[in-house]
């Protein structure tokens, strides 16, 4: 079975990386229903991001907005290789991960719009997508900040399984980061701790070749072989073609399985390309249009579409209807977001602490008990007093 | 109150942590030298023996890494106690402790909280020089989402630490290296807790209110003793937590005395002391006989030389001078 | 003009890559636009045809200005305007009520409330005190306050503080020497207001006078307004500030608002059954819905059809509120001095029963234990008062300004009722709406009550 090639050997090889091993070639093809489901997710993320760009330009979306166009196969393939109970944490280019993890396009779009029906009630925004139900522990806005959190999530799942429940560590944590985060101290500390403490966390570097406008070879040593970063911390590394969904899926399946079995960290250099700018205000002057055009020929959606057509897993008509359905879903999400109320102003004072203290949040709890010469200490009256 | 037992400040903190770890398996202690070394300041003495290396965890010197890791664990539901050998070293972990822990609940629209305690030495030790003498409450009290606890006695330290561990929000617990050896009566039993935001009147008086927290409370007590000989009667209020801030207790006292001197170990510019002063000017304007006076650490980096360090910190002499000035007895 | 950077406010069209009549495809770059940060490519998001270029190259326009019209595939010429992606901000802005407008409404609606309950400024504070020689006197705030209360003439004192500032000690000395020292002469008239609002420790006025000597008649004081007949045995109780506010506001309401009442009966059989079912299913979650929670939600939902009930009289205009904030009257424990507070639940029309229930519970507990903050009590647009828990059958309430209506609810009583022309046993509640006739006429009130009746008698509608 032929698999589409990416551009690692072309003149526009932005990563300058070593060749990527192929894994999908000799693997059994997943069943047609699964393939169609993945296809729908790819198309949904793409359409969602296009409409985000439009809504941003229409001033419906504020702040910074980083779209995922071009990298869809990474989120879909990685999530497909996980179990629902495995925690996932990511950086600020997070809409694709949220949708792949199962967040509704309505909740995601309403969050972008800053409305009360957003996944975080309009308080997080584009860079901070959280979804407790789907074990999405956030998009995080500070580059690299999520890497120690990823280690911590893995620490906690292992602690729960082994120390509290006296069982075997059963979950793995997936921690996404961009290639820019490779240069942050937090990343290196997280890798050291994960290696030292045998934490079941997988650091997936979505290596799209650019941290904002700085190409990877201008900012990162050993950029041709990022594995060396992980090896320094005693962590196994894998290179995967992030432009090919089947490669992502099979590659990640192996990594996840090993990580779960051995309860050890892993590192993945996921080679991919973002078709749009770093954010909405990026003119992309640091790369040529030729380079973009070549990468667009290897579009992960087109590649996958061709593959499942060839496999007979989908028909042209079915493709048309998926596209139509997704368009309608995203249009509905935009409409929903637009009609969702803005958060009430009183929301500003909620969720700062678990117990709301009113307007002087944190500075002064109104009407305290203090002032007595011997203020009463209180005795916990029942088990669990003071806990959630 | 039932029986008490005289123990050291450091053991009061240890007892609080151990009791809570016995009570709740989700609680664990992590930090540099907390396990095999028994804590750089011997606060976690004996804990490794009781709880083992899975729950009392040594880390490498990697504050940003282990602070962030503990926050991730708290998001998933554990209740970590993180020891910073010194709060001075927390500055390299500023992003996780200021950008992640206090904002997680808000950013996630209430989905993920951060029940975590960060604790360690705060304020000048003994001639540690500029980099190791940080009094971080001046910086961190500016950030909403954090609770800040600064006890001054062993009994408070134990009861407040237990409350901190059971609290669902991030708590910064600040200990003074100079107080760790102090002995005091602590109630026996593992169910004595103290609510946050509840100040304590350590001494009653009529002429001037002295408000402070942590180690300088003891300087205030000495100053009050000395001023009493001059006929000036001071009321000493120990705030115990500065977020939440029990401004009501200070307010009540100032309505009585008409004068307030704040004693704060941090630098004066944008400090908890300036916040208290602003709030008291607002709440008690018509009760004040003089503007609020403040005694802070001098506005310079911490010096090394013994005499310079003494002059740099709030001390009994400076407090007495401030009270005399505030009460028009200078 | 699309926004192409986070800080962009206007943009210049550097170049159009298309001309009128050209076909375009989604993603195609039709223009280069110079923003505050860089020259950006402007793509279109739909397939179609350029109908018109409205802004020529070289011209700078604000973000949101229409710069071109695109005729989408399958679209007619008439609809083109609305579908232009670049023109969308204008179109959508009109679709949503302006935030600032609704915020303003609330400010003006409540200014009267706040004004009514705040303490009147004391004249003396604004007056400048001059010494005998005409020089300005410096006084510490507390010294000034004590002098006010004790009627000490500050102009006659000499300050011992820095720069001659009169401090507390100076005033206290003057008070001690009063009588013997001519310098401490008192001012002529008492300053009204200063004593009654003060919290001073030096005030010796007992809060409850003669409480232990009921048999001794209290001599009539000038303050008794002549209403108390001499010889009647009474005890005098100082009035709390809360009671003063209640007295002031309700007298004002009852004397300035033309009140009238409309009463209606509600069949609550289904509501009681639904409540019982929900409560038994939700008991494990610690949720217990009260009848009042249903009523509060019903009232809020009824506003959508009859917005004039959710309005305020504001002199020459009526303010129709954009939010439905329902005040719930909370009685305080009599042992603790009693009193009445109105806790406000905001945006009730957008809240679930469960949210309303838990918020009501939290606020009433807070009211009883610690008192409510200004925020907890302000911005109500309608009020519900319920004495059902005391078994009261029916009563009328006084409107809580600046509301225009208040609903007084009795108990849901089990009683003989007629259902389908049969005498049977059922639950009925009587509720009386008090209204401001300047805003709401009788028929309007009746229609609103009917809507509420429809909701309470078919309570499933309250769940969705």
Could you walk me through the main structural features you see in this protein, from its secondary elements to its overall organization?
The complex is a heterotrimer of chains A (388), B (330) and C (464). Chain A has 388 residues and is of the alpha/beta class. Chain A has one domain (24-343): Thiamin diphosphate (ThDP)-binding fold, Pyr/PP domains (Rossmann fold). Helices cover 40% and strands 10% of the residues of chain A. In chain A, the strands form two sheets. Chain A has a six-stranded parallel sheet with strand order 2-1-3-4-8-7, sandwiched between helices. Mean pLDDT of chain A is 89; it is low at 1-9 and 358-388. Chain B has 330 residues and is an alpha/beta fold. Chain B has a seven-stranded mixed sheet, sandwiched between helices. In chain B, strands 10-12-11-14-15 form a five-stranded mixed sheet, with helices on both faces. In chain C, strand 13 (326-331) and strand 14 form a beta hairpin. Chain C folds into three domains: 10-91, Beta Barrel (OB fold (Dihydrolipoamide Acetyltransferase, E2P)), CATH 2.40.50.100; 141-186, E3-binding domain (Dihydrolipoamide Transferase); 258-462, Chloramphenicol Acetyltransferase (2-Layer Sandwich), CATH 3.30.559. Chain C is flat, with a radius of gyration of 33 Å. The chains are: A alpha/beta (388), B alpha/beta (330), C alpha+beta (464). At the A-B interface, helix 5, helix 6 and strand 9 of A face helix 3, helix 4, helix 5, helix 7 and strand 9 of B. Strand 9 of chain A pairs antiparallel with strand 9 of chain B.
């Amino acid at each position: 079975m032929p698999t589409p090639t990416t551009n690692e050997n072309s003149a526009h090889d932005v990563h300058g990386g070593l060749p990527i091993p192929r894994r999908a070639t000799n693997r059994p093809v997943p069943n047609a229903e699964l393939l169609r489901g993945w296809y729908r997710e790819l198309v949904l993320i793409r359409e969602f991001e296009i409409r985000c760009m439009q809504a941003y330009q229409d001033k419906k979306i504020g702040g910074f907005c980083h779209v995922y166009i071009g990298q869809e196969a990474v989120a879909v393939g990685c999530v497909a290789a996980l179990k629902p109970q495995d925690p996932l944490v990511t950086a600020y280019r997070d809409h694709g991960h949220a949708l792949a993890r199962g967040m509704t396009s309505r909740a995601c779009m309403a969050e972008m719009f800053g409305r009360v029906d957003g996944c975080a009630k309009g308080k997080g925004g584009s860079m901070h997508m959280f979804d407790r139900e789907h074990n999405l522990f956030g998009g995080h806005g500070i580059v690299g900040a999520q890497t120690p959190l990823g280690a911590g999530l893995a620490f906690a799942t292992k602690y729960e399984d082994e120390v509290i429940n006296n069982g075997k560590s059963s979950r793995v944590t997936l921690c996404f980061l961009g290639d820019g985060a490779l240069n942050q101290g937090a990343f290196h500390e997280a890798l050291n701790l994960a290696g030292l403490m045998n934490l079941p966390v997988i650091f997936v570097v979505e290596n799209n070749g650019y941290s904002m406008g700085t190409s990877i070879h201008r900012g990162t040593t050993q950029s041709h072989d990022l594995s060396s970063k992980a090896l320094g911390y005693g962590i196994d590394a894998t290179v995967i073609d992030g432009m090919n969904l089947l490669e992502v899926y099979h590659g990640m399946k192996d990594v996840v399985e090993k990580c779960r079995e051995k309860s050890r960290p892993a590192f993945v250099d996921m080679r991919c390309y973002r078709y749009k700018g770093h954010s909405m205000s990026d003119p992309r002057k640091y790369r040529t249009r030729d380079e973009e055009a070549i990468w667009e020929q290897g579009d992960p959606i087109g590649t996958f579409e061709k593959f499942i057509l060839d496999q007979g897993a989908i028909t042209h008509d079915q493709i048309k209807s998926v596209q139509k359905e997704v368009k309608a879903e995203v249009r509905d999400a935009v409409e929903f977001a637009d009609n969702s109320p803005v958060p009430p102003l009183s929301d500003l004072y909620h969720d700062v602490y678990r117990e709301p203290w009113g307007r002087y949040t944190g500075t002064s709890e109104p009407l305290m008990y203090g002032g007595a010469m011997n203020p009463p200490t209180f005795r916990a009256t029942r088990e669990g007093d003071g806990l959630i | 109150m039932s029986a008490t037992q005289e123990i050291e400040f450091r053991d009061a903190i240890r007892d609080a942590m151990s009791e809570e770890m016995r009570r709740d398996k989700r609680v664990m202690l992590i930090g540099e030298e907390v396990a095999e070394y028994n804590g750089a300041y011997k606060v976690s003495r004996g804990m490794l023996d009781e709880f083992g290396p899975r729950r009392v965890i040594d880390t490498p010197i990697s504050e940003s890494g282990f602070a962030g890791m503990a926050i991730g664990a708290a998001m998933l539901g554990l209740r970590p106690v993180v020891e910073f050998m010194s709060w001075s070293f927390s500055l390299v972990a500023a992003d996780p402790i200021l950008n992640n822990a206090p904002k997680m609940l808000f950013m996630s629209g209430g989905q993920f909280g951060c029940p975590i305690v960060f604790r360690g030495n705060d304020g000048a030790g003994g001639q540690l020089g500029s980099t190791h003498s940080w009094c971080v409450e001046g910086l961190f009290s500016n950030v909403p989402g954090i609770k800040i606890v600064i006890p001054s006695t062993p009994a408070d330290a134990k009861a407040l630490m237990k409350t901190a561990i059971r609290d669902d929000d991030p708590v910064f617990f600040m200990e003074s290296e100079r107080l760790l050896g102090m002995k005091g009566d602590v109630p026996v039993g593992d169910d004595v807790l103290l609510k946050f935001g509840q100040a304590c009147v350590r001494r009653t008086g009529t002429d001037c209110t002295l408000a402070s927290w942590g180690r300088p409370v003891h300087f205030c007590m000495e100053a009050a003793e000395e001023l009493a000989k001059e006929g000036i009667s001071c009321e000493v209020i120990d705030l115990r937590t500065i977020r939440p801030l029990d401004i009501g207790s200070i307010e009540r006292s100032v309505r009585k005395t008409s004068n307030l001197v704040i004693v704060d170990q941090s630098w004066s510019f944008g400090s908890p002391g300036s916040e208290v002063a602003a709030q008291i000017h607002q709440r008690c304007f018509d009760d004040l006989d003089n503007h609020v006076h403040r005694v802070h650490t001098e506005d310079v980096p911490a010096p090394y030389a013994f005499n310079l360090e003494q002059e740099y910190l709030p001390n009994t002499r400076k407090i007495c001078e401030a009270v005399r000035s505030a009460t028009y007895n200078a | 003009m699309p926004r192409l950077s986070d800080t962009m406010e206007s943009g210049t069209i550097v170049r159009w890559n298309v001309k009128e009549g050209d076909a375009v495809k989604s993603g195609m770059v039709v223009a280069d636009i110079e923003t505050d940060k860089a020259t950006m490519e402007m793509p279109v998001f739909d397939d179609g045809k350029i109908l018109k270029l409205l802004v020529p190259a070289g011209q700078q326009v604000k973000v949101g200005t229409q710069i071109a019209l695109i005729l989408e595939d399958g679209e007619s010429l008439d609809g083109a305007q609305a579908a232009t992606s670049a023109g969308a901000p204008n179109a959508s802005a009109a679709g949503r009520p302006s935030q600032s407008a609704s915020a303003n409404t609330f400010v003006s609606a409540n200014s009267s409330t706040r004004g009514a309950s705040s303490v009147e400024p004391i004249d003396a504070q604004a007056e400048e005190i001059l010494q005998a020689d005409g020089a300005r006197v410096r006084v510490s705030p507390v010294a000034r306050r004590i002098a006010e209360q004790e009627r000490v003439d500050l102009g006659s004192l000499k300050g011992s503080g820095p720069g001659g500032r009169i401090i507390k000690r100076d005033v206290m000395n003057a008070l001690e020497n009063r009588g013997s020292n001519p310098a401490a002469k008192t001012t002529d008239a008492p300053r009204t207001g200063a004593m009654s609002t003060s919290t001073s420790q030096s005030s010796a006025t007992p809060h409850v006078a003669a409480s232990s000597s009921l048999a001794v008649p209290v001599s009539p004081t000038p303050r008794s307004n002549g209403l108390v007949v001499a010889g009647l045995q009474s005890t005098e109780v100082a009035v709390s500030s809360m009671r003063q506010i209640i007295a002031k506001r309700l007298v004002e309401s009852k004397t300035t608002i033309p009140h009238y009442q409309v009463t209606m009966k509600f069949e609550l059989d289904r509501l009681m059954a639904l409540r019982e079912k929900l409560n038994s299913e939700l008991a494990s979650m610690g949720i217990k819905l009260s009848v009042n929670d249903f009523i509060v939600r019903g009232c809020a939902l009824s506003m959508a059809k009859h917005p004039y009930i959710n309005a305020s009289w504001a002199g020459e205009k009526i303010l129709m509120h954009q939010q439905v904030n329902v005040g719930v009257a909370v009685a305080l424990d009599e042992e603790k001095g009693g009193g009445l507070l109105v806790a406000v639940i905001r945006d009730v029309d957008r809240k679930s029963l469960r949210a309303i229930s838990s918020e009501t519970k939290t606020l009433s507990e807070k009211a009883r234990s610690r008192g409510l903050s200004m925020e907890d009590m302000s911005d109500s647009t309608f009020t519900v008062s319920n004495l059902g828990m005391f078994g009261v059958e029916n009563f009328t309430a006084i409107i809580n300004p600046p509301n225009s209506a208040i609903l007084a609810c009795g108990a849901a009583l089990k009683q003989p009722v007629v259902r389908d022309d049969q005498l049977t046993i059922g639950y009925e509640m009587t509720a009386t709406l008090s209204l401001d006739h300047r805003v709401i006429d009788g028929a309007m009130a009746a229609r609103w009550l009917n809507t509420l009746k429809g909701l309470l008698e078919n309570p499933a509608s309250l769940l969705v």
